[in-house]
Sequence to fold (206 residues):
Amino acid sequence: MDSPLPRVAIAVPSGDMVHADFAMAYAQLCMASAGLPLQLITVKSSIVAQARNNGVEHARDFKADFIFFLDSDMLFPPTALFRLLLHGKDIVGATYTKRVAPFEILGTKLAEQPAVLSGDLLEMQRIPTGCLLIKMAVFDKLSKPYFRFETDSHGAIIGEDYVFCDRAREAGFQIWCDAVMSREIGHIGQSVHRLPEAAPNGTAPS
Fold:
């Protein structure tokens, strides 16, 4: 007999609003994942770490096997959930750039990487949580709160996603990044557009 399909809770931390483009990508992903037992969780909070912790508790109530974090400013392929599940990892996701210049890539890969990747996966020291699949059993090895902010030796704040990665690795878990999917991820930013200055002769800009 085939094993039952995994139960997945999709948790979206947000404020009162989400981006329209995210909403469309989310709808397409849910349609593409309709064969799975899904629970959609909206976790609204001004403190993202608390929203993620609340998402884990809701996923437990659903008796989920996995929690899939999707941030409300992300774009992703409809097949993202299935593709991440197929890797069979405890913690696996995609990375992306910051929303502001110079648009640095988030996360840190492990220094000891093979010259040529076997498959799509790259082992990470840290990965952002905007598109991240976590097996619920991981949280059984961590103390609460699972997501928290900390400071480094210089007093700089370390985000809740990187703190989670550090603690998960200390607990013996590996963290993986789908390098192929990462090229299909978008991070929705904000920019201000203004009319150019009027021409010297007073004519309106074209």
Observations:
- The first strand starts at residue 8 and ends at 14.
- The helical segments are 20-32, 48-61, 80-86, 160-170, 179-182.
- The domain at 8-187 is CATH 3.90.550.40 (Spore Coat Polysaccharide Biosynthesis Protein SpsA; Chain A).
- The chain has a mean pLDDT of 90.
